[in-house]
Amino acid sequence: MSATFVGMPAFPVAAHEAVADTTLRGNLRHATHTIRAKRAAAVAEVSDWAQLREAGRRIKDHTLRHLDRYLVQVEEAVTAAGGTVHWAADAEEANRIVTGLVKATGESEVVKVKSMATQEIGLNEALEAEGIRAYETDLAELIVQLGKDRPSHILVPAIHRNRAEIRDIFRSEMSRWGRPAPEGLTDAPAELAEAARLHLREKFLRAKVGISGANFVVAETGTLVVVESEGNGRMCLTLPETLISVVGIEKVVPTWRDLEVFLQTLPRSSTAERMNPYTSMWTGTRDEDGPSAFHLVLLDNGRTDTLADEVGRQALRCIRCSACLNVCPVYERAGGHAYGSVYPGPIGAILSPQLRGTASEIDASLPYASSLCGACYEVCPVAIDIPEVLVHLRERVAQGGEATRQGNKVVLKPARGHAAERAAMRAARWAFSRPGVLRGGQRLASLTRRLHPRTLPGPGRAWTGTRDLPPVPAEPFRDWWQRTPGGKEDAK
Amino acid sequence: MRVALFLTCVNDTLYPDTGRAVVRLLTRLGVEVDFPQGQTCCGQAHYNTGYRHEAEPLARRFAEVFGGYEAIVTPSGSCGAMVRELYPRMGARARAEGRGNTLERVLAPVVPKTYELTEFLVDVLGVTDVGAYYPHRVTYHPTCHGLRGLGLGDRPRRLLEAVKGLELVELPGAEECCGFGGTFAVKNPDVSAAMGADKVRNAESTGAGVLCAGDNSCLMHIGGTMSRLGSGMRPVHIAEILASTEEEPAV
Questions:
Q1: Would the CB atoms of A468 and B224 count as touching at under 8 Å?
Q2: What is the ipTM for the molecules in this complex?
């Protein structure tokens, strides 16, 4: 399996395989249902959850509205604290900056904290191309990296793997990356964790360069915040001499007071914990300890374009908790890989087509990867109305229209493959605008009902492949209403 | 009280029994029901598939046809949510696009007086015991737009619990989507079918003979899956259960 998402097939094609994979379905069902129930309990014990959610929404909206100002504030504060700020308009520029910074240290390997932003830009591949080896140190990311796999979940990237699969990956792959797995490794969680600990420890102690993302950047002091469970993040953030953090521009919060809201909502939404085990915060550099050089790479990569869209911009509120993935019935069946991006699930379905545009087959299919059941919106700790954005993006795909790409207003053409649907929708609107036409169609269907096939040909197979069609009644309701009339002459 | 039945195009065409049940039920409760003949479709399928502009004339027609009534009652959580949740949004979008507030103004009157059936019974008529009789073991599936869109809460359950002879059994994973999702059912048939099959399995595990819900479009998907899987269960709209009495029992 390729480690990148380039050239992914459309969602329904990728999902077709996932649905048929019973091991994957079992792994996902078990994992999502467990975390789903725990999250519900963790949220239920907070009496002011609704207010916290609303506060989070407002803080994010306010920050995004004044992002220009807050980003400059971040740059000033980070610089004043001894760090260096770099601005990256896209993935290529960000990769170039980071690769250059690593090369300047003379090192050929780096340790990484789990980071969505660096995955989004394909940093590991860019480093590899320059002969620099990047070691993922988050347990799940390590599993993904060793297995030459792709992440399938925001928080638990190896959610699609069970313990036996992980044991096999450790046994066969660890030796190629460093310390091999202990002899006789079993699939007991404690043994697997110990194997990872031993394997990673030598890398932490050797590494001179660490690369991270950040969950938040506090503008007033230029402080970066990483929230994690394993402690590997703190190792990467404190042991190396040089620390490089790649952070999406939407991660800014104005003040520490604002941060407090998210430090309550994020752990409960993501891991169902009252407080996560490790919260690391750093401001620039210090002489006494920690990295002596700190670089912050502020990443745009489609975020400004997304911000320009009145409906779609709410996706930038996301704090990457993954609660929406864990409740999503589509994610549960299709798995994370089908979304063709490091951002799977409902949030991915609205982020990817905005950050990357809707030109590719996978991105044009993502807005439809939802039954619009609304469970994602209900659990979102920053109240992103994901169904609203999905429908908005469907309109962009099916009808085209105005959008912003690379900072320019453009008028998009409708995506390919929607002409028949567009004609059908127009025809349906025409018929529904004329009750007489509707009635004619209903009567025709009723008259010919004995002739209706049980299964449909062509696109109709999408329904009748797995479901029977409902029988058409002898007469539509409106005919009965007129004939009886109003049901008065007909008890039934 | 004179109310309009907004039956929905799906019910009108495929499920007239549900329409007849609503008429019988409301008439029994002393409500004068009218079925405005000009009604067609609320535009939900258009809107949710990304054809908002095609949905607009249908919304305007809806407002025109139903505007004169005191209340508009619909046996569909999702079409009810279309009017209540999405009509205001359509109007606001039109304004944001510089097309003025005409659409908003035209649609505004019908929004607050549109009720999903169970909402109308419990909130407007103030009844939970509608005098129904239905001697079956029933499990209830709250459909997504009724549950999360309209916030129907325990209204349907309270109505079902008051039905004589009815044994209500809890559906495991009740609040999970059945996988219908309008055009989702055919655009992502594999995932939709997998969700449907899981819903049916959960329903079967209850030992109930009937799966009840407030949306026939969802029931079309669940029922179609049941019949394909050879399940002994059948889907029944809540209106048909509530309309059933000892004198005139539903089959």
A1: yes
A2: 0.97
